[in-house]
Design goal:
alpha/beta, Rossmann fold, 8 strands
C-alpha cells in the first residue's frame, strides 16, 4: 500500500492509505492533540485496517484557522465529513476529548443508519459523568500549560519549545472548553454499536466508576480494559492497545 499521506478534505488524514482493507478506523485526538498522534497507529495497522486521523482546526497545517470549542458543533461537522468514508465498515477510536467526540459522531452516524462496528473510548469518563469543578479552560496561560505538562501527553520536543507551545494555547484552550462544558443531551438514545473502554488505573481524569458508566450508553456489547498508568497510559502500552484494536477489527 502507498505510504504517502492522503488528505481527505481539511479534516481527515490518511497516512498509510489501505484501499483494500475491509475496515476503516477513524481516530479522534485528545485536547491539544493533532492527527499526527495517530501516525504510529496508522503505520502499525496498515494494510489490514484503513486508518483515518482527524485534524482539528487551530494546529499544525490548520494553525491559522479558528479552533472550535463545542463538541456538538465538531460532531456535526465530522459526521458530515465522514459520510464518504462509510463505504465500508467503520470503527471509531477517541482518546480523552476525542472519546466524547467519537461518541457524539457515532450517535449521528447511527441516526443516519450507519452503525459503527466498534466505538473505542480511551481515557475519558462516560458522557453521563461530569465534574462541576472542571474549569481549566478559564485558567491563565501558565496554569493551562502546567496542566498540559502534568498529563504527560505532549512530546518532549514541543514542551521544550515554549514559543511554539504558547502559539498553540488558543487551540488547547478551545479543546478544554469543548471537553469541560460538554453535557449529554437529555433523551439521547443508546448507541447500538458495541463499546470498548480503555483506561489507565491511576488516571486523575477518569475513575473506574466513571469508566464503567460507559456501559449505560450502549445496548450493544461492553468491554473495559484497564492498563497501568495515568491519562496517557497509551504512550506506555501502545503495542498492546494496537494489538487489541487489530484483534477486534481483523477477525
Amino acid at each position: 500500500m502507498s505510504g504517502s499521506t492522503t488528505n481527505t478534505g481539511a479534516w481527515l488524514r490518511r497516512y498509510h492509505p489501505a484501499d483494500s482493507a475491509p475496515t476503516r478506523l477513524v481516530c479522534f485526538p485528545h485536547a491539544g492533540g493533532s492527527a499526527t498522534y495517530y501516525f504510529p497507529v496508522s503505520r502499525a495497522l496498515s494494510p489490514a485496517v484503513d486508518v483515518v486521523a482527524v485534524q482539528y482546526p487551530g494546529r499544525q497545517d490548520r494553525r491559522t484557522e479558528a479552533p472550535v470549542d463545542d463538541i456538538s458543533k465538531l460532531a456535526d461537522i465530522l459526521a458530515e465529513e465522514l459520510r464518504p468514508s462509510t463505504d465500508r465498515p467503520l470503527a471509531l477510536f477517541g482518546h480523552s476529548l476525542g472519546a466524547t467526540l467519537a461518541y457524539e459522531v457515532a450517535l449521528r452516524l447511527e441516526a443516519e443508519g450507519v452503525e459503527p462496528v466498534m466505538l473505542f473510548a480511551s481515557g475519558r469518563r462516560a458522557p453521563s459523568c461530569h465534574r462541576d469543578n472542571d474549569a481549566v479552560y478559564l485558567s491563565d496561560d501558565e496554569t493551562l500549560l502546567g496542566t498540559i505538562k502534568a498529563l504527560s501527553g505532549t512530546s518532549p520536543e514541543l514542551l521544550e519549545d515554549d514559543e511554539l507551545l504558547r502559539s498553540l494555547l488558543p487551540a488547547i484552550r478551545a479543546d478544554y472548553k469543548a471537553a469541560e462544558t460538554y453535557r449529554k443531551r437529555p433523551g439521547t438514545p443508546l448507541l447500538r454499536c458495541p463499546v470498548t473502554v480503555l483506561t489507565g488505573d491511576v488516571d486523575p481524569e477518569v475513575t473506574r466508576a466513571e469508566a464503567d458508566a460507559w456501559e449505560g450508553h450502549t445496548s450493544g456489547d461492553f468491554t473495559l480494559h484497564e492498563y497501568s498508568g495515568g491519562h496517557f497510559y497509551l504512550n506506555e502500552h501502545a503495542p498492546s492497545v494496537i494489538s487489541r484494536i487489530r484483534e477486534v477489527l481483523v477477525r
